[in-house]
Specification:
Helix content: 55-70%
Strand content: under 5%
Number of helices: 5
Largest sheet: none
Order of helices and strands: HHHHH
Length: about 100
């Protein structure tokens, strides 16, 4: 019984190693890393507002599920539950992008 999980882990590790293959050494930047700025986000009310503005910029009809996520996210951010609010707003944004 213990042989199967061991083989699965080994097979998974072998696949990961093969997928990694030769490439850029760990810690070394590629040219793409230096040409695009990295957006650093924090769990802050300002980031909540940024997400809210992004959602507001969508002009097409917002599905009910997305509206619920947006409403919950706004409320959570306004009541000091910033992390949970950001989570809801991000999920709302993802559903908007895929609708």
């Amino acid at each position: 019984m213990t042989l199967r999980p061991t083989l699965f882990v080994c097979a998974g590790s072998a696949v990961w190693l093969c997928a990694a293959g030769p490439g850029t050494p760990i810690g070394q930047k590629t040219p793409a890393d230096t040409t695009h700025p990295v957006a650093i986000t924090t769990d802050s009310p300002a980031y909540c507002e940024t997400l809210e503005r992004t959602i507001d910029a969508y002009t097409h009809r917002i599905p009910p599920q997305t509206q619920t996520l947006e409403t919950e996210g706004r409320h959570l951010c306004q009541t000091g539950h910033v992390r949970a609010g950001i989570d809801r707003l991000r999920r709302a944004l993802v559903t908007l992008k895929h609708s």
